[in-house]
């Protein structure tokens, strides 16, 4: 276990905050569409997003345990945001694709490896030691990875994440292909 904060801890904290932000956007969108009422407020009350620097949020005497709890809370916030709107999966996926496009425009032009890194930074796959994400291949023109989608409690998780990644990759000018069973390909071939 780590006795000090390192780059991986900061990355995990940022990923947890990103998933919370996605959950918040889904809840706001759901309210704006009239699918729910007060859902954004309910989400904020039930699963508040961490605020401030990592040092202010986690217990520095138990870094791993604190981050693991943050990761779990972020996943649960996404599940909470999606729960009342499962019958709107297609509309929600379209919105997530737009969110991915926005994220890509904010990231700016990127090389393939940097694009994959930014894409990965937006989503959680448990803690790194959980082994829920694995790189299958990492070549200059293609990156293939797999995730264990069963670990994510949000209904329709894989479809929503896939839609976001599709919008992100397309906007940056990369080819993106779901290959089945939680495996994806990002490449320079378009």
How would you summarize the topology of this molecule?
Blueprint: H1 7-33, H2 39-46, H3 54-57, H4 63-82, H5 89-107, H6 112-121, E1 133-139, E2 142-147, H7 157-172, E3 175-180, E4 183-187
Antiparallel strand pairs: 1-2, 2-4, 3-4
Distance between the termini: 43 Å
Order of helices and strands: HHHHHHEEHEE
- Overall geometry: globular
How many E-type strands? 4
- Uncertain runs are none
Compute the average pLDDT. 95
Strand content: 5-15%
Q: Please report the number of helical segments.
A: 7
C-alpha Rg, in Å? 16 Å
What characterizes the major β-sheet?
4 strands, antiparallel
**Count of discrete structural domains:** 1
Strand neighbour order, sheet with most strands: 1-2-4-3
Helix content: 40-55%
What structural class do the secondary elements suggest? alpha+beta
Structure description:
The protein is an alpha+beta fold and 190 residues long. The chain has one domain (7-187). It has helices spanning 7-33, 39-46, 54-57, 63-82, 89-107, 112-121, 157-172, and strands at 133-139, 142-147, 175-180, 183-187. The chain has a four-stranded antiparallel sheet, with helices on one face. A hairpin with a 2-residue loop joins strand 1 and strand 2 (142-147). The radius of gyration is 16 Å and the shape is globular.
């Amino acid at each position: 276990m780590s006795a000090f904060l390192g780059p991986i801890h900061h990355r995990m904290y940022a990923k947890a905050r990103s998933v919370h932000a996605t959950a918040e956007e889904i809840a706001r969108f759901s309210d704006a569409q009239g699918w729910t009422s007060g859902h954004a407020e309910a989400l904020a009350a039930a699963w508040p997003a961490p605020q401030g620097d990592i040092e202010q949020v986690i217990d520095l005497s138990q870094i791993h345990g604190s981050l693991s709890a943050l990761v779990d809370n972020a996943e649960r916030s996404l599940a909470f945001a999606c729960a009342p709107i499962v019958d709107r999966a297609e509309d929600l996926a379209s919105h997530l694709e737009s969110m991915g496009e926005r994220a890509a425009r904010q990231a700016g032009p990127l090389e393939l490896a940097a694009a994959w890194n930014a894409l990965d930074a937006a989503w959680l796959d448990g803690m790194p030691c959980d082994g829920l994400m694995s790189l299958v291949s990492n070549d200059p023109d293609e990156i293939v990875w797999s995730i264990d989608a069963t670990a994510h409690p949000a209904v329709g998780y894989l479809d929503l994440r896939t839609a976001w990644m599709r919008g992100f990759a397309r906007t940056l000018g990369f080819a993106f292909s779901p290959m089945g069973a939680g495996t994806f390909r990002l490449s320079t071939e378009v």
